[in-house]
Amino acid sequence: MRAKLSIHMLMVSVAVTAGLWGAGLSWSATTDEKASMAQKPSPSALRLSQDEAVALFLRQNFDLLISRFGIEYAKGQQITARLFPNPVLSVGTQSSFTQVCQGSVSKCGQVFPQIQQLFEMAGKRGYRMESASFGARSAEANFEDAIRQLSFTVKDAYYRVQLAQRRLALAEENRDRFSRILEVNTIRFKKGYIAEVDLIRIRLQVVDFQSQIIQAIQDGNQARADLRVLLGLSPSVDVMLTTQLDYHLVEPDIVALRRLALETRPDIRMKRLMQSQRMADLRLAKAYRIPDITAGAGYAVQGPQGPDNQQQVALSLGIPLPLFNRNQGGIAQAEVSTQVADADLQKAIVQVENDVEIAYRNMLESRRLVETYRGGVLEDARLTLTIVEKAYERGGATILDLLDAGRTSRTIQQNYIETLFNYQRNLFLLENAVGREISS
Predict the structure, then answer these.
(1) Which of 142, 224, 293, 330 is the most exposed place for a label (fewest CB within 10 A)?
(2) What residues make up the domain containing 416?
(3) pLDDT tens-digit map of 235-254
(4) Does residue 302 share a domain with residue 155?
């Protein structure tokens, strides 16, 4: 009697558990339907390849728009550097009393307008224009460097979306596979062919895959949001990416890459222009040792009463005497700025050389690992899971063997996806270090 009651309670427990699990599967299917709907193009969907995403980024990224204003600011400084000093117009008046015949006193007045012009000596205007020209070209190089760095960020965000999609597809595949195994084993458990603990293990494995699906969906949503921000798109735009995360063999020449990086990277060019600008500033500071000349001319107009010299012409010439201030401090500051620019350039060159070297080595290692996975490891992992699954169905393997094979297959496939993403990312890092795209 007790045995029958125990069996009856066990069957009720299984029925309740199966019902709850069925509800869980129904909720899971609803979540998958939503995820699938999110992948379908909506009326406001924007299909973008990698190159199209970069082109859109160049047109409307906010950081680039802000950086572009630096060029206009530098051009304004160029305009200011070309301008001559404005002439100074001054008007003076003079009143006096003049003694005339028989001891009487007469009042007379005079108006004296004058124009003065400052003439810069020792080529100051030319040095100032030279410095402003280097500054404008440096601002353009800085803008190009912003494009270089942010383009890597766009490509990285683009493929992070693809990485999340690949993770999602793998998690859904594993979830569906073990859901079928769970359905079969639920029936087998009801018939008493397997123990309840084996059914629980399979059920937990399916729940783990469902958790991975949700995590992949969340990662994909965040990656899409980051990409939309970089592209200047609103959240209502559904971004559909057409360039897949795939393997492309690249075998660049490291010697050519080092030379190309030092020749073409915009930040190195910017440092060189800054160095030239500081040298022009030093020449300008030394030119300020020579005083400027102020020349003026005026014409005095006297009223109807007064002395006979009613109209007077005046010329003036002013030259500061450089007895104390010969711009010693400005020259010292300019010399220090030149030394700082030299050191900054050398630092940038060393940094670029190391960036290229480490990016190249990382790319080679990740490429080697991708090729190892593609050499048969992925197929071996899938085949092993299939063999163990069939053996388990025939009773030739335990549930632990099946779970271990599933765990191994999942780990190998996840590692391959991560390795493929890392290879693509290291390739982008190498392009970022060189400052150019690498095609072969």
Answers:
(1) 293
(2) 21-84+145-289+328-434
(3) 888 888 988 888 988 888 89
(4) no
